[in-house]
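haha ok so turns out i had the wrong file open the whole time. this is the CORRECT one, sorry everyone. sequence first:
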Amino acid sequence: MIGRFFVPPIVAMLVAITARADYYPQYYYNRGPSRPPIISLTLDPQECINTSFRIAAREERDEDMLRFLDNKADINSRSEEGATALMYVSRNCAPTIAKTLLARGADAGLEDLHGRTALIYAAQESCSSVIEILLQSRRVRIHHKDKLGKTAIDYAIENSRLEEGGPTFETIHLLDVASLKKKK
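then structure:
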């Protein structure tokens, strides 16, 4: 009983805390700053691991991300919006994590509910370092159009109009060269 409500025993199983005390010592020993534990609420333990894995990738937590992968997280698992960890990493411009995900088998050709791929997200953010890594993947689709009918090159050009100089021109160049290679 909690208050006036009876809580069935299954509710106790709904909360899965995916962090351990030794990863976040400040909570237990007050030893300096660290990040809070990743917590996921779900009925399915596998979905809990997958969600926690995507959060770790999005927040660039290398050790946590690898720990979840070692615990059988699906590297291509999707959020409610259809986004994968590689899409989050591409949006956040994290080249080292993108390289790790691709080395572990992440699919660069997957698209979310809006039809956007990891390459489109990287182009939207003018992240030439992640684009360069994604273009090395066999599954990347350079000419893929999202539901708005735009390709990664279209987003890179759109960003070049918004920003003077910067990495956007390098992004357009990388995509153009890759596009020409794929046509041959």
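Residues 124 and 155 are 5 Å apart (CA to CA).
again sry for the mixup
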